[in-house]
């Protein structure tokens, strides 16, 4: 591992400080914005079309762009993955998780929001999802990431299902 500022080899993995230039490196969680689209005690799940966890069910969502608030990222991801506008509801919670990417296990800070569809027909992005289904909030399938399991449980409690 090398210092991103001066290029010098680091003495140890982050968190550390570069001995050459003094640059402090940390392992920071990457924020996400995710949706729990719900209706009549059910939530919308998408089957992942790509790794990691291809083939498992997930909630719509993704990483925040630079300087993007998690709520804005959740709405954007809804538009990109579902092809519709969503109405953002209450904040469900933040959960620390992990995401395997480019040979690394990255820490993530997953931010979940309740949401509803605005009556439009969902059109999945085939690069992201191979199918969709509605599941009872109190009986979710195995989800791709532990943070999703926790968020669905908390959403079910919040919504009284």
TrEMBL record:
Transmembrane segments: none
Annotated organism of origin: Phytohabitans aurantiacus
Ranges of residues in domain Nudix hydrolase: 27-158
Protein name: Nudix hydrolase domain-containing protein
Keywords, in A-Z order: Hydrolase
PROSITE patterns attached to this UniProt entry: NUDIX, NUDIX_BOX
Domain of life: Bacteria
SUPFAM superfamilies assigned: Nudix (SSF55811)
